[in-house]
Design brief:
four-stranded parallel beta sheet
Length: 254
């Protein structure tokens, strides 16, 4: 946990802290570890030997699952959206170095990946596996993220707002189960995110739980979606790093 201080914050009596979950592990860090922890425990409990998950060609979730499989002795399969490129990009090259098998789905079929018949065809092709959804969000992701919220209550007593980037809604959903109604979780969607309010409700329902804190999703703080940015964002990221030593990225945390 690091406190950020500057003239603007001090002038307005704002205490700002950054929880450095990026330092948890070189490759399985941030919300990826929080979401994967109890999925890995469940896979181990049921005796699964293979993890299968989905993602785009630049997915940090794909990289994290590949690294987790190598670290905890699971075979891994990554179902990648789109057609294979001539050469692997750095993300997929890393996944292969972690012994993840890569399989590509055309974009039409990929959009149907949640359908039982699509999953059934994957089981016919690959045999038995433990399925982790794209982004890692399911009922087993929630307790790991909840642990993060409980840590925050100990590290920064009395805070009012907890801010998080919001892609699939899983991190926000988990955080809201670890805080009380005196706190409010603000999710900043990384693309047009009005649909996320409904998705967050589905995540809670899948785990049979209800939120214990207030929350809101802010949908206008992005540059059009994943991997889209403007020069001023890059300038802010560079300036923030120069002042604090904390690295941000242009997709989520910047």
């Amino acid at each position: 946990m690091e406190r950020i201080s500057n003239e603007l914050l001090d002038k307005n009596s704002i205490r700002l802290f950054v929880k450095r979950d990026d330092t948890l592990h070189p490759f399985i860090s941030g919300n990826k570890w929080r979401k994967l922890k109890y999925n890995l425990l469940e896979a181990r409990r049921i005796g699964a030997q293979t993890l299968l998950t989905f993602g785009g060609a630049y997915s940090n979730h794909i990289a994290a699952v590949a690294a987790a499989g190598q670290a905890f002795d699971f075979q891994t399969i990554g179902i990648i959206r789109g057609e294979p490129a001539t050469a692997l990009n750095p993300t997929l090259a890393f996944a292969r170095r972690c012994d993840m098998a890569l399989h590509y789905l055309d974009r039409t079929t990929y959009r149907q990946k949640h359908l039982p018949e699509v999953v059934g065809r994957l089981r016919e092709k690959f045999g038995d596996f433990y399925l982790i959804p794209e982004g890692g969000t399911n009922q087993f992701a929630l307790p790991g993220v909840r642990e993060c919220a409980l840590e925050l209550l100990e590290q920064v007593p009395g805070f009012d707002f907890l801010c998080t980037a919001c892609g699939t809604g899983g991190t926000l959903a988990g955080l809201c189960t670890g805080l009380d109604e005196r706190r409010k979780v603000l999710g900043f969607s990384v693309l047009k995110g009005d649909f996320l309010r409904g998705e967050v409700g589905k995540i809670w329902a899948s785990g049979g739980i209800s939120p214990t804190s207030r929350f809101d999703i802010l949908t206008d703080y992005h540059f059009g979606g994943y991997a889209k940015w403007k020069p001023e964002l890059i300038a802010f990221i560079n300036d923030f790093h120069a002042q604090t030593g904390i690295p941000l990225d242009p997709v989520y945390t910047g």
